[in-house]
Amino acid sequence: MAGAVEARLAELGLTLPAVVPPLASYQPAVRSGVYVYTSGQLPMVDGKLAVTGKVGAEVTPDEAKELAKTCALNALAAVKSVAGDLDRIKRVVKVVGFVASASDFTGQPAVINGASELLGAVLGDKGVHARSAVGVAVLPLDAPVEVEVQVELDDEA
After folding, report:
1. Residue 17 three-state SS
2. Beta strand 130-136 pairing with 44-45
3. What CA–CA distance (Å, rounded) separates 146 from 43?
4. What pTM was estimated for this model as a whole?
5. Fewest CB within 10 A of the end CB: N or C in the chain?
6. DSSP reduced 3-state for 66
7. Which of 101, 103, 92, 74 minimizes the C-alpha distance to 36?
8. What is residue 86's three-state secondary structure?
9. What pLDDT does residue 39 have?
10. E strands, the chain, where?
11. Cα–Cα dist 105/124, whole Å
């Protein structure tokens, strides 16, 4: 049975995807004490990237913002895979977003707002977090966006 967080996702018209399988030698998420750290999540849907390229060139900032939401959903799936239940999230501690950027693109924060806004919409005050939004030359598979999330769980195992 889905908990309150997954019910909120459903209210927003979203479903938690399956965990994206690793593309290399790592785990999608690991737990250390009360913290869960996700690996960088690409905007994969059904095992593939819908869009590739640089933001500010082949990909518009609005498209990239939507892709960042997909990354955040994939991160929540990774968190659930090790926490067991998204209702155990005490708070999102930090979000780090990477934006594959055209050389003159400087709107990385607005792109990563897609992930931040999704976490806020789903988790309310628990979704408020510290954040970095970084422009990079290229991401794996030529993805436009990558997001990693760190969450604190309640202390009940």
Report:
1. coil
2. unpaired
3. 7
4. 0.96
5. N
6. helix
7. 92
8. helix
9. 97
10. 29-32, 35-38, 44-45, 48-49, 89-100, 130-136, 145-153
11. 30
CB 92 within 8 A of CB 127: yes
Q: What integer is the mean pLDDT of 93-100?
A: 98
- What is the rounded distance in angstroms from the CA atom of residue 49 to the CA atom of residue 54? 13
Residue entry with tokens 């594959």: 100
Q: Quick one: CA torsion of 43, 45, 47, 49, rounded to 10 degrees?
A: -50
HSE-CB at 30 with a 13 A cutoff on CA atoms is 6
Cα 113–Cα 51–Cα 75 angle in degrees, nearest 5: 50
Rounded Cα gap, residues 53 and 141, in angstroms: 9
Task: In whole angstroms, give the CA distance from residue 54 to residue 64.
Answer: 9
pLDDT-derived band at 50, boundaries 50, 70, 90: confident
